Amino acid sequence: MLEVDCPCVTPEVVLKASGHVDKFTDLMVKDEKTGNCYRADHLLKDFCKDKLEKDQTLSPEKAEEYNRILAILDDLSAEQLGAKIREYGIVAPDTKNPLSDPYPFNLMFQTSIGPSGLSAGYMRPETAQGIFVNFKDLYYYNGNKLPFAAAQIGQAFRNEISPRQGLLRVREFTLAEIEHFVDPEDKSHPKFGDVSDLEFFMFPREDQMAGRSATRLKIGNAVSEGTVNNETLGYFIGRVYLFLTQLGIDKDRLRFRQHLPNEMAHYAADCWDAEIECSYGWIECVGIADRSAYDLRAHSDKSGEKLEAHEKFAEPREVEKLVITPSKKELGLAFKGNQRMVLEALEAMGETEALDMKAALESKGEVEFKVCTLGKDVTIKKSMVSINIEKKKEHQRKFTPSVIEPSFGIGRIIYCLFEHCFYQRPGKTEDEQLNVFGFPPLVAPIKCTVFPLVKLEKFEVVAKKISKALTAAGISHIIDMTGNTIGKRYARTDEIGVPLAITVDNTTSVTVRDRDSKDQIRVEVDEVASVVKEVMDGQSTWADIMWRYPAHTASAAEDEEPEP
């Protein structure tokens, strides 16, 4: 993958082309007296959850209704949300005042660029647009070949209506995004076989609409049955699953949920969220979207610069091409200010739709045609458009690539990782519970601790020697020369998630203790850094190491746990 680093401040024209200026919104309601703002879907969600959890008189029918609303909440339109808020008598949480009807609120932070203040810009709501506008250079750097991918890690900004839930909903956060460019006619992936047998919880939109729960599916079956749109999208879903579970996310509290129709981003052809369950419920942490060719087409149209790829043929090919030629004059007379939108809709027709229109025009002379950007049907007459299939010889094929995008919310993943890795175990006394962060070695910030069993100079010399070897091996560690009991020092390092602890109790060999099992082995001083590195790099597991080195039985003093 090609890594890029694009600016956080984005000119308005870029985000106008991408659709964010017009469509990057959440539905908001206002307290009609104080003007305080709330996210409409959050109020309805909180109301339904509160009723289900606290209302002891709730009938089974009403409970089923509230559960169904929670299942399809993201699919409700502004009108449907407003109707439910009125039906349930939902009011402003703080003042109990009546609320306005829901209306869209743009989530981008606006700013001005340059001293004149005349050039509008926005803080980027995602990192992706910087990659799209640099597509030509990235395509060139990849040898003008597809598929290829570009990645970016950086800050993104969203003017959330009601930030809450600590790290989970904030206005500035770190995104890591991959834009994988692929031929829209061939979305297969050469490495799909590596993940096709993975089985995990998936939640297709049909199951959500029917009120069913997520079920375990093989990603290979989900792609072959059409539940997931294509192999490349399926490949990245599989890779995201492996990534999250290797970080330490519990596979039984991870699911992939397909977006509902109204919930889909304005650019997406298919989209799945990796949702992780934590104390706040199911939290979206990664989005994996097939953005189709929307972005590159939108920037091409706005800039006039063709963002295309090409495939050269070994021999010229005779191809039949659909040629749609709208009459600008006739469309202008009929639709005046709406001429451009009708013209673009005609040119964007697929072959089947265009040939159906051609047949209808030849038989009836006119046809009703839906223009999405106008939100209504218009009457197209035979004089307004010419539709033909023409034979041409082509030496190459030009096309606009599709984009598959995994987008990682880093803060959310880290928060859920903290919850999933935290546990408690019994201490020295019956009532005492000791805190442990069970981070896998891969992500533990501190890989091991080194401390002498007792304060003796000969042990401290060995501890410093081991520390030097660990530093040379690139292993982050803490050296603890305090006089606390060994049990207290073990508990202290367990509490910050350190996987291994090295105790110097001899000048030639030391003990290495595993955090989760509390098992210990004896290792020669000169070998200990390489053993730790093996485990930290994932070359060996602790179980592998246990087979190779003699077990060490802790004395009562070594196993002592701290007093409360």
Q: Describe it for me?
A:
Belongs to the class-II aminoacyl-tRNA synthetase family. It is an enzyme of class 6 (ligase). Homodimer. It comes from Urochloa decumbens. Its EC number is 6.1.1.14. Helix 12 (about 330-335) packs across helix 13. The chain has 19 helices and 26 strands. It is globular. It starts with a strand and ends in a 16-residue tail after the last helix. The model is unreliable at about 555-564 (pLDDT under 50). About 35% of the residues lie in helices and about 30% in strands. With about 575 residues, the chain is α+β, with helices and mostly antiparallel strands. The chain has a nine-stranded mixed sheet with strand order 1-8-9-19-14-13-12-10-11. Strands 23-22-24-25-26 form a five-stranded mixed sheet, sandwiched between helices. It has a three-stranded antiparallel sheet with strand order 2-7-6. Strand 3 and strand 4 form a beta hairpin. The relative contact order is 0.09.
Q: Average pLDDT across residues?
A: 90
Low-confidence stretches: 556-564
Radius of gyration: 30 Å
Shape from CA axes? globular
Major sheet characteristics: 9 strands, mixed
Class per helix and strand makeup: alpha+beta
Percentage of residues assigned to helices: 25-40%
Percent of residues in beta strands = 25-35%
State the end-to-end distance: 51 Å
Order of strands side by side in the largest beta sheet? 1-8-9-19-14-13-12-10-11
Number of helices: 19
By DSSP, the count of extended strands is: 26
